[in-house]
Amino acid sequence: MPETAKNLEFQKQSPEHLRLSLAAAMTLGFAGGRFYRDAKLGCINLLLTYPGACKANCAFCGLAREKHVDFFDPKFEKFIRVTWKAYALDEVIERTKNAPDWVHRFCISMITHPKAKEDTLYVCDRLVKETGLPVSILCAPTIMNEKDLIDMKEAGADRIGVAIDAATPEIFHNLRGKPVGGPHRWDHYWDIYEKSLAIFGKGYSGVHLIYGLGETEEELINAIDRAKDMGGYTHLFCFYPEVFSAMKDHPQPPATGYRRIQMARWLIDGGMTRASKMTFDDKGRVLDFGVDKETYEKALNSGEPFETSGCPGKDGKVACNRPYGNEKPGPDLRNYPFTLESDDIALVSRQIKEYE
Predict the structure, then answer these.
(1) pLDDT at residue number 189
(2) Which of 106, 205, 238, 297 fits a disulfide with 334 by CB distance 3.0 to 4.6 angstroms?
């Protein structure tokens, strides 16, 4: 990038500027394009942005500091598979006022940076007051304490997300802690989640968990069960190798195991089963979900377990449906950002019964 252009880009930092996912940019008219199968994004996803990017170094993340020497170089704009360009907060607010009627929510994603707490409160306050839409915050626990959560609620946020990501303390430590030069701690993340439930209320905080980081199905389901037992829920992701991450060569897991995880999450979060009721094989794969045949078949045929899990909109349905954030648009979808059709249900019905 030419030096003059780079200097202009460095002026685009939070709180005056925020990065938008490609889907959000398309929805607000900043970018052109069409959604595969006419998917519609219900939540405007915003990402804080600073020179030097995130100060953590998670192995699976495209924002890891060691991989982003120059985050404002266009080739480094990709994150969660798509580009995240920076736009002025003022313009985001104005365009949201005329957004399609299926846009029900904002989500502010923090990063591990000294300015992130202050800027998140500023952005949240403006979004709530100037658009009237509810705001979720995907928080950065490492730089936070209980008071920060209280401040976020007072700024108008109605929901909190805690991206624990890894299913076990060992995987968390190896991919997010000292072995990769990262500052994050497993116990602190769960502590912030517990505090967020006390402050925002049961059912108003959730954890993010990623399938495919080296855990077994049983281990991930135990983490989902723990989140539910504490009073919240799980937003589920399938690992996708990010181009500029340390795990760029790590393969994406097959859909088969992810289908079983999706079903387990849906049944657990719906209060229909628990991890302790399920049966697993010697590789930790689900053999039985601990529900009767009628309950299982009804869930499977509805297709709902395989839709994206995220914060709801005013209609009670998932607003944060993140179209194609886990995979390229096409037949191999992991999180469906729309209601499944009969062919989709036939596909996931076959996949959930397959064992690699």
Answers:
(1) 98
(2) 238
20, 123 Cβ separation under 8 angstroms: no
* Cβ-proximal residues to 43 (8 Å cutoff; 6+ apart), any chain: 103, 104, 105, 106, 107, 136, 310, 311, 313, 319, 320, 321, 322
Can you give the residue ranges of every domain in the chain? 3-253
The two three-digit tokens of residue 151, written as one number: 């401040």
**Greater model confidence, 66 or 158:** 158
The alpha helices in 19-143, defined as continuous H runs, are: 22-27, 89-96, 116-131
**Which tokens in the block code for residue 244?**
């500029």
Quote the pLDDT of residue 326.
85
Residue 101 CB neighbour total at 10 angstroms: 6
**How far apart are the C-alpha atoms of 24 and 133, rounded to whole Å?**
15
Please provide the distance, in angstroms rounded to a whole number, between the alpha carbons at the two ends of the chain: 45
Q: Residue 80's closest CA among 241, 311, 262?
A: 241
Q: C-alpha distances in angstroms, 183 versus 50, 80, 175, 314?
A: 18, 21, 11, 36
Burial 310-333 (b: 16+ CB within 10 A, else e): bbbbeeeebbbbbbbbbbeeeeeb
Report yes or no: 42 and 319 within 8 Å, Cβ to Cβ: yes
Q: What φ, ψ does residue 349 adopt, rounded to 5°?
A: -65, -35
Both structure tokens of 211: 């399938």
Give me the residues paired with residue 162 across strands.
139, 207
- Alpha-carbon distance 347 to 266, whole Å? 18
Give the tens place of pLDDT for each residue, 194-249.
Answer: 999 999 999 999 999 999 999 999 999 999 999 999 999 999 999 999 888 899 99
42, 104 Cβ separation under 8 angstroms: yes
Considering the domain delimited by 3-253, tell me its CATH architecture.
Answer: Alpha-Beta Barrel (3.20)
* Residues β-bridged to residue 160: 137, 205
250-to-81, 187, 214, 221, 242 alpha-carbon distances in Å? 14, 26, 10, 22, 9
